[in-house]
Amino acid sequence: MDVRAQVSVVFHLDKCIGCHTCSIACKNVWTDRKGAEYMWWNNVETKPGTGYPTAWENQEDYKGGWVKKGNSIELKGAGKLRAFKNIFHNPNLPTIDDYYEPWTYRYEDLFNSPEGDTQPVARPVSLLTGKFMEIKAGPNWDDDLSGSPDYARKDPNFKNLSQAEQEALFQVEKLVMFYLPRICNHCLNPACLAACPSGAIYKRGEDGVVLINQKKCRAWRMCVTACPYKKTYYNWSTGKSEKCILCYPRLETGQAPACMHSCVGRIRYLGMMLYDADLIHQFASADESKLLDLSREIILDPRDPKVIEEARKNGIHDSVIEYAQRSPVYRFVKEWGLALPLHPEYRTLPMLFYVPPLLPIMGMSEEGVYESLTEGLFTDIEQARLPIQYLASLFTAGNEGQIREVLKKMMAVRLYRREETVGDLGAEAVQKALKETGTSREQAEAIYRLTSLANFEERFVIPPSHREEAIVMLDTEFEKKGTGGFGFRMAVGRGL
Amino acid sequence: MKAETWKEIKHCQNINRWVSLLFGAALLGTLLYAAALHAAFDAAEYYEKKCSSCHTVGGGDDVGPDLKGVGERRSEDWLIKMIQSSQSMISAGDPVATQLFEKFKRKKMPDHDLSPDEVKQLLAFIQQGGPVEKPIDDKPATAATPQDIQLGQELFLGSRPLANGGPACISCHSVGSLGPLGGGSLALDLTQVYSRYEDAGLSKALRKTGFNIMREIYVPRPLTGEEAFALKAFLFQADRQGQESTGFQKKFVFLGVGGCVLFLGLMDLSWRKRRKKTAKPSHGGLS
Amino acid sequence: MKNYLLFVVFPYVAIALEVVVSLWRYIFRRHEFTSLSSEFLESKKLFWGSVPWHYGILAVLLGHLIGLLFPREVLLWNSVPIRLLILEVTGLTFGLMALVGIVLLIARRISDPRIRQVTSKVDVLVLAVLLVQVASGVAVAIGYRWGSSWYASALVPYLRGLFTFNPNVEFIAGMPTLVKVHVFTAFLIVAILPFTRLIHFLVVPVSYLWRSYQIVVWNYDRKKIRRASN
Questions:
Q1: What pLDDT band is residue B9 in, cutting at 50, 70 and 90?
Q2: Across the A/B interface, how many CB contacts are shorter than 8 Å?
Q3: Domain count of chain A?
Q4: Is residue A114 part of a domain?
Q5: Hey, which end of chain C has fewer CB within 10 Å, N or C?
Q6: Which band of pLDDT confidence, cut at 50, 70 and 90, is reported for residue B211?
Q7: Is residue A487 part of a domain?
């Protein structure tokens, strides 16, 4: 057992209101620079929809992620020999047109234009060429199902849905959508890292954050192809790839990442998890049907004495173990099984989990008359507007049963709370629903509390990063005392 | 700014200064070394290397004129110009130069990168009688047997290596009767070299190999007498047959272009699945 | 003396610049080591420029290197006409590929407004020098035929002299001007290489072939801790 710690995240999609505050917070902090204007390390896309970059889930086009080969896995669009064959021109690289051409406006024209008969207009100017441009695409061009015929209908997740089912989704009366915020998944088996020829990408052992060393990146561009989530971005100005850094400078000082801190819907949870690194390759190479279970199984119980002992052997600090025991993510993912990884079939073992949206049908408007559909307040999840298969394609590699389990459990918690607060359902019905999903009343209460009432400290359980102790482990503190400062690489000292 | 940051910057500046110094030293070193390599001018050595293969001092006309008494025949000024660049003298219409050029079958004397002072030293060396000449007495080519000619051909082509390890003539030279590919075209086509240099001149050229690059190659690895004779015999025969060198140039370029097109085609085929359009509907994607 | 400056002094200066500046940049400005790929902004035209250019120039460079290391073997190979033909046509093929590639790359830089935004003055210099180099190389291969042979016998001694600190300018002094241009530009490229994006040539990621796929970096000495606790 090789125990490592991982900062992992849960996004509760039922709570996302699609306000893009997270994206703006991230943009303002990290990507408001030349060459990075088009990057959205955090983006929120509408589902059904093609997302950003357009149709990123279509791996037949972008060739991201891993594919199973025999008992092992290999990169779909990159890898050792392929990297050298394709190093002069990566045939699978998305270009900026797959994202959008970034622009700004000539705001000064609004103030400086001479007096005239018409209102002055701030024309859009390309941030690539500096010339006037016509905006044809943006990072959220299909927000809220806009342009559905062009975008939403081409959602790659429709591949297992019949034509009739797809059509039904776009009936005005049945229109359905939800938001999918995405950041880097800081995977356990990152494809971007494996694809980097210069070895510039690395995973931090102490907290699992995946980073790109800007001093080592040589613009071979393989990571952009390899990441199936398209969360590594090429900076066309500096000639380096960049990606979400999970705001590690904030994490190290005990603050939540900017996107999470600013989240209006409070959908985001962050906490430590312990996992067994010895199992990564074996689990990532498993059959597709087992991937979801295994990506939960690789996470270890932080209360297990054996796990604690092994964690200590790896130098994981006691406080990290303690915080892992309090992790909200562990509860959502492991204890309750409510949070699911996005597209586990990409085999990168993502460490960002989603609680799927419940989206019940409350009623239907027929010939102008609104009618409640069922006798009870909540409908059966089978009648959810969004086909189960669609959610399964996103979160369980197509397994509808696993989605159903999650949705039923969420529904049971709702029924439980209805009974607690209104009391019109009858204790028996609630008991039945809880029993069916193997949920105790205490658990239902806990799920409710963490979902709805959790405050800042409960949502973000960030252990101290102990960088001061990390330095002590490499050097004696007495040597450091009396020197110009700390620093691993360029220590301050007298020149030659 | 914090004191520590300043210290760090100062530290980097220190390093930069050292690196620049080191860099400057390296540059200066290379220059000095290069200058030291360019040794002082030695007229005797220069004559031996650059003049002796075409000229004699008192041994009669050779590829070029006998240089005995040249200091009396021509003005020093004329000689300096002529030695520095004979072709510019001819193109400038100097009558003596033109006459000599015609007399010696329009063989160009290479330019010599010498200062006037160095030419004067060279002339003084010639004035004093020049080098001690060892006469070369090879048999004339007319005495060659078919075996000699065959041997000469093999040596020329390189199918039989030269005894002292020099590269085969074909590397740089071509001869009319060599078949479709011909030899190199870096240096002269040797088809008619026999009539131009005549028997004795050719012998001397083969044994002393006095032209710039050839000298550098063959002085440390000279031809043996037997080899020189065989080659002369081969060249004699080529001269008599008088075939023109075949122009393979066009076919060669054609083959190269063909290969290039073939590779571009293979490239297109090998990467036929490359992304050819973006996924954006506004750019024709997602169809 | 002119030849001496151009073909003995300059090459040493060029190599000195190459080594010192590359090292300096690697130590103090490592962040600048990148290929500065522009494929992200324009991919279709790049394919027809970059791929033939790189494959062509690498094959040609390899050919020059083989000639430099094994001149006798090259001459031996060339002593049979059909083998000579194969070698020469292969060389010309790759030379032409590099030429086609560089011409297309230059055309792309000029014609595409996005690519012009990421083109610096140094890039213009690099492309111009490379064009001169490849064009003169192809012209020499066609104009002074069987370059592989005379390169091995007449130019390799000059290069070997340079590398063994026993330079002999005579080998180059008698060469045709076109060959001189080719040799000089070669050293010019060596000289400007560390100042340009060409430095990506020095950091070809060969170690990728044998490294393990995943890289984990710890901010403390994990091995020491593991040893201590076992």
A1: low
A2: 68
A3: 2
A4: no
A5: C
A6: low
A7: no
Contact B50, B42 (CB under 8 A): no
CB contact under 8 A, B286 and A154: yes
CATH number of B141-241, picked from 3.40.50.10070, 3.10.105.10, 1.10.760.10, 3.40.30.10 = 1.10.760.10
Look at residue B77 and tell me whether its pLDDT is greater than 90.
no
Q: Inform me whether the pLDDT recorded for B73 exceeds 50.
A: yes
pLDDT at position B85 is 84
Q: Verify whether the Cβ–Cβ distance A205 to C31 is below 8 Å.
A: no
Asked if residue A440 and residue A382 are part of one domain, the reply reads yes
- Residues 6 or more apart from B144 whose CB is under 8 A from it? B152, B229, B230, B232, B233, B236, B237
CA distance, residue A13 to nearest chain B CA (Å): 26
CATH topology of domain B43-127: Cytochrome Bc1 Complex; Chain D, domain 2 (1.10.760)
Polymer length of chain A: 496
Q: Which domain holds residue A409?
A: 267-461
| CATH at A271 | 3.30.70
Q: Which of A73, A108, A89, B20 is nearest to C44 (CA)?
A: A89
Report CB contact under 8 Å: A221, C209: no
CA-nearest of C29, A493, C27 to B7 is A493
**Among A208, A226, A260, residue at a domain's last position:** A260
Instruction: Clarify whether residues A347 and A242 are in a common domain.
Output: no
The answer to whether C73 faces chain B, any CB pair under 8 Å, is no
Domain co-membership, A383 together with A426: yes
> Tens of pLDDT along A267-293?
999 999 999 999 999 999 999 999 999
Strands A268-276 and A460-461: parallel
Which one of A86, A97, A99, A148 would you mutate to disrupt binding with B, by most B Cβ within 10 Å of its Cβ? A97
The answer, for B111 touching chain C at a CB cutoff of 8 Å, is no
Q: Chain C window 25-64: which residues touch A at a Cβ cutoff of 8 Å?
A: 30-31, 33-43, 46-47, 50-51, 53-55
CA geometry: angle A341, A347, A348, nearest 5 deg? 75
Query: Which residues from chain C sit within 8 angstroms of residue A93, using beta carbons?
Result: 39-40, 43
The architecture (CATH level 2) of C2-229 comes to Up-down Bundle (1.20)
For A54, which of B15, B18, B280 is closest by C-beta distance?
Answer: B280
> What is the model's pLDDT at position A484?
61
Q: Let me know whether A191 and A278 are in one domain.
A: no
Contact at CB, B275 and A92, closer than 8 angstroms = yes
Cβ contact, residue pair A492, B7, below 8 Å: yes
pLDDT tier at B38, thresholds 50, 70, 90 = low
Smallest CA–CA distance from C40 into chain A, residue = A95
Distance CA B235, CA A61 (A): 66
- In the predicted model, residues of chain A with pLDDT beneath 50 are none
The token pair that represents A484 in the structure block: 């110009």
Residue A131 contacts C, CB cutoff 8 Å: yes
The answer to whether residues A231 and A281 belong to one domain is: no
The pLDDT of residue B1: 44
Give B280 to chain A, closest Cα distance, Å: 6
In a domain, A66, yes or no: yes
Separation CA A285–CA A287 (nearest Å):
7
CB-CB: which of C2, C9, C170 is closest to B213? C170
CB-closest option in C33, C37, C222 to A221 = C37
Q: Is residue A474 within a helix (H) or strand (E), and if so which, with residue range?
A: helix A467-474
Q: Where are the domains of chain C?
A: 2-229
